[in-house]
Amino acid sequence: MTVSWQARRVFVFSHPRTACHVFFQLLATHPIFQVVTPFCCAGANEVSTEAQAVRSRQEWQDLLSMSDEDASKITWQGSIDGLQREVAEAELNGKFALTMDHPSFLIASSQLQAHLGIRGCEAKPTPVIIDRKLDVGAVYPHLDAGITPEAHPNPTLLPDRFFFSFTPIITIRHPARVLPSFLRALQRLGDDISHPEFAVHGESFRLERLIFDSFKAYEEARAVAEGRKAKVPIVIDGDKLVRDPQDQMKELCMLLGIDEGQLKYSWDPPRLLEHTKMARAYMDEFNRSTGIFFNPRAKEVNMAEEVRCWRKEWNEDIARILEEKVAAQMEDYEYLLQFSL
């Protein structure tokens, strides 16, 4: 029997192009949640003086329509402090804190290099971050179990105590869905997609696996110390979500200890950051969405058919590259898939 998390604070570790924005929008409609600024650390990763991203700070500022003055105010320490304050505020309001970020925005460039091997990019100095414990207050004064999983340490720049205080939800989707979607977004940005190293952060589920394994090891150690059964980190497969959202959300809500009947499966178009190049490239469809609906006709992946479509949409070389990259992703994807709802 699966053990319920009975969540009080939830972090969606979202792989790009996995229907993660739709999933987050749907979960956020539940009245128990107070949304804590999603992608709170993305600015620090992209445009701060301690930026860890592969693209240059100037490129990111252009994509986000961000001025030099606004960029100069962003730091890693300030971003994590702000995240902790928002979590504390949600809990003081009697709500469950809910936030989301892509793992590639949370992990130091040295870790990205170690696990992804990004060619032509040097590791940058890792930011020094102090856990100011701004999320600890009268509501939840004891959040540190004093457990550090040595074999699978926290791979992110979030302080260990804070990282492990969350109920994790990891989003995945078949690589044959993720990669071409990522490629289309890069095209809309005007990137050169002919190079075989395109979609660096979108082409590997390794970062999500590192986060999963870290939470799994932490929970197993804590379960032994407390004499109970361990909880398994939650994995949502975007393909399953698209095919039958209500079934997926019923199972998720049972694990979280909340009432699925209070979710709203339709909404007004979100129109998030729609003035930026980044949103127009990556979020245009989501920003026009009005909900998520049961779609039993959503097809299972047929690689031969996918490759034919890629040849038609692009060309033989890009179809071959996509096919190779999908194959390279499958081990980590299938590892996480076995734990999906």
TrEMBL record:
SUPFAM superfamilies: P-loop containing nucleoside triphosphate hydrolases. InterPro entries: P-loop_NTPase. Gene3D superfamilies: P-loop containing nucleotide triphosphate hydrolases. It comes from the Eukaryota. PANTHER family: PTHR48312, SULFOTRANSFERASE (PTHR48312:SF1). This is Sulfotransferase. The lineage of its organism: Eukaryota, Fungi, Dikarya, Basidiomycota, Agaricomycotina.
